[in-house]
Amino acid sequence: MASLLRNFWATPRFALNQDYKPQCIAKIRCLASRDSTLLSSDTVTVNGVSSIEEKEKVIPIDDVENGHLTSSIKEKSKEDIQDKLEPLWDDGYGTQTVKDFLEIGSDIIKPDGGPPRWFTPISAGPPLKDSPLLLYLPGMDGTGLGLVLHEKALGKVFQVWCLHIPVYDRTPFDELVEFVEETVRVKHVSSPNKPIYLVGDSFGGCLALAVAARNPKIDLVLILANPATSFARTPLQPLLPLLESLPDEFHVTVPYLLSFIMGDPMKMAMVNIDSMLPPRQIIQCLTDNLAAFLAHLSGVADIIPKETLLWKLKLLRSASSYSNSRLHAVNAEVLVLASGKDNMLPSANEAQRLASSLRNCKARYFKDNGHAILLEDGINLLSIIKGTSKYRHSKRHDYVMDFLPPSMSEFKKAVQDFRWYLNFTGSVMLSTMENGKIVRGLAGVPCEGPVLLVGYHMLMGLEVIPLVEEYLRQKKILLRGIAHPTLFTQLIESETNESSIFDMLRLYGATPVSASNFFKLLATKSHVLLYPGGAREALHRKGEEYKVIWPDQPEFIRMAARFGATIVPFGVVGEDDIAQLVLDYDDLKRIPILSDQIRRDNELAARMGVTVRRDMTGEVANQTLYLPGILPKVPGRFYYLFGKPIHTKGRQDLLKDREKARELYLHIKSEVQNSMNYLLKKREEDPYRSVIDRTTYRAFSATFDDVPTFDY
Fold first, then answer.
1. Of 388, 407, 438, which residue constitutes the final position of a domain?
2. Predicted confidence (pLDDT) per residue in 103-124, tens digit
3. What Å distances lie between residue 81 and 87, 103, 104, 257, 354, CA to CA?
4. Which band of pLDDT confidence, cut at 50, 70 and 90, is reported for residue 276?
5. What interhelical angle do 279-297 and 98-108 show, nearest 10?
6. Bridge partners (DSSP) listed for residue 632
7. How many CA atoms within 13 Å lie on the side-chain side of 225?
8. Is 630 helix (H, G, I), strand (E, B) or coil?
9. Cα 415 vs. chain centroid, distance in angstroms?
10. What is the CATH classification number for the domain harbouring 245?
11. Other CB atoms within 10 Å distance of the CB of residue 664
12. Which residues form a coiled coil (predicted)?
């Protein structure tokens, strides 16, 4: 096993300066470098394939002597390993920036004569129990530091290993493929039912595709950030010969040129700046960050000296050719992240090509980002993985068991993105205590799960975002919404493949409606948001505002009673205060072009098996999906009323007596309708129902959350 621990070069500065914590080289796992003997006496054989029996070690900063890591090794404490994450956990986004990338990069590039090797950033971990492996494959720089912004977040839910290719290493592309492939195969043997993630950044994207093509039977998930498979079509081709003839004394200018080609310095400098700060403070922080960034930029010349740059360009050509010739053999699940302002590669077009060429490929397009997308502001890699349902522990994604709750940074971003909507709707949330008293806020809703919130679905689900946001803000509990399965298919993907509200719904725990998912949510004591009216209620016709359209059968009562869930009926009103329905399904059916399009879309959904309630009769069975025509109004206000909690714990009669279950079902339905009737009447007494009145009050009196409402 000693052969697996190769010296990872560290400067004496790390030992002398205790305040400096290198984020990439202080912690090393027992992995082989390219030249090490991978299979030693400590290996075991599984099904005829040798596998390393891993022992995770930590090499502390204090154990650095004479510029090299010593052999003093400590066993990693298992006390820090968690089973799950709580909502609003700290993902560390913004605590490290491009400045850290350049500082750490300048320290690890010192030549040590060693081959390519794996390392784990010290900030990445410890991960949750049974977390999958994530291998980061770097771009042209080869440092392996490209995840510096994402290390802490990814390290909570992945075992993160980063590939470091020393500056003066000249390993050919095919040997790099073999090195990564050997690691993948060993890890697959040790955990055959777990996926292995390959995050390929630019050049690393070619490396990931090559490994996937050579191992079609291994469960791989590829995340490709502006992959260099399009290098043959780079707009910089005419400039490449000039680099070869550029005198050495002028190479110092190359880093400054590359910085503007590889990424957007402004976006890189914005990473750790809170956009909610006053403009003057934002400008000051941005100026400071840009100054620090430019001060370290000259270090890129050391990370990619002239000889290395020319070698990497040759490596890119061979990598692009190698991976493109084997795309047909890739069976892996692939997610491509493409930038719209990539000045180095035609990444947007390449994402479309890969999406059509690969068997299982999805793309996400970021129109305002540059080539070094993982180092720019606004890109949270873990959020993208979660929002596209790519995170899983086994061969298939489980929307309940594989779910990761939103972090604090994700919550802040969502609030920022939808602040205009939250302000316009100015939601008032009322709840009912056990003694029947109505209070403002969610104090009447129990905290101990399982809890089932059952209510009315407003037009197009307009009430969902304020409800989930306020529930998470007040109770620090995430509502898991039961949603139509169409929201989890390619049917709702936009033509531009940009991130959408549907990604955010998945990020915040939306789950496809099914008996098994409902069962698992209640079994895990979740707080579940259920709309029995479903799509029929959310896409209601004209004149059906605030009409409860539920099925005749008590669908959820017996399941709730089985787990002793507390049921909280609620009503919500306000859709007619912000929008007017001008074209409903009946209107659209009379327009031939639109009618044909709706029919084709719903037939396609049926062929994909994503329809619900096909065996039902009556009004609720008519769940035709379409996009209604609405006309915005000067915003009014949303009002929610959560009724008195209904406890099913110990109610065995609900499991055995169908009539008892039906009685409770009808009672809940009437409570929802009564809540809406109450709100429709009381909102007429609200002096701040209009957004204009609320804005005026807020300007002179209080924050938006403190705006009063009617007496209750």
1. 388
2. 888 778 777 778 999 999 988 8
3. 17, 30, 27, 44, 38
4. low
5. 20
6. 579
7. 27
8. strand
9. 16
10. 3.40.50.1820
11. 21
12. none
Label residues 58-74 b or e (16+ Cβ within 10 Å = b).
bbebebbeeeebeeebe
Classify residue 89 by its DSSP letter: B
115: left (phi over 0), alpha (psi -120 to 50) or beta: beta
Question: Which residues, in sequence order, are CB contacts of 175 under 8 Å at separation 6+?
Answer: 34
Q: Within this chain, do residues 442 and 536 fall inside the same structural domain, yes or no?
A: yes
CATH code of 505's domain: 3.40.1130
Determine the structural domain holding residue 113 and report its residue range: 98-388
DSSP state of 103: H
Total number of domains in the chain: 2
Angle at 621 between CA 615 and CA 623, to 5 degrees: 120
Is 115 within a domain? yes
- 341 in the same domain as 468: no
Cβ count within 10 A of residue 440: 12
Find where tokens 């820090």 sit: 80
In a domain, 596, yes or no: no
Query: Residue 338 CB: number of other CB atoms within 10 A?
Result: 27
Residue position matching structure tokens 């060693």: 114
Same domain for 319 and 424: no
In Å, how far are 53, 157, 158, 298 from 198, measured between CA atoms? 22, 14, 11, 30
Identity of the amino acid at 378:
G
Picking from 56, 130, 711, the residue whose alpha carbon sits closest to that of residue 402 is 130
Same domain membership, residue 376 and residue 232: yes
Q: Is residue 294 part of a domain?
A: yes
Helix (H, G, I), strand (E, B) or coil at 136: strand
For residue 131, which of 510, 521, 394, 523 has the smallest C-alpha distance? 394
User: DSSP letters along 669-686, please?
Assistant: HHHHHHHHHHHHHHGGG-
For 580-616, how does the pLDDT look when each residue is reduced to its tens digit (9 = 90+)? 999 999 999 999 999 999 888 888 887 777 777 666 6
431 and 347 inside one domain: no
- Do 437 and 366 lie in a common domain? no
Structural domain includes residue 371: yes
pLDDT at 352 over 80: yes
Task: Supply the pLDDT for residue 69.
Answer: 31
Cα–Cα distance list, 470 to 117, 274, 392, 404, 441 (Å): 47, 21, 28, 19, 9
Asked whether residue 535 falls in the same domain as residue 575, the answer is: yes
Asked if 531 and 537 touch (Cβ cutoff 8 Å), the reply is yes
- State which amino acid sits at residue 508: Y
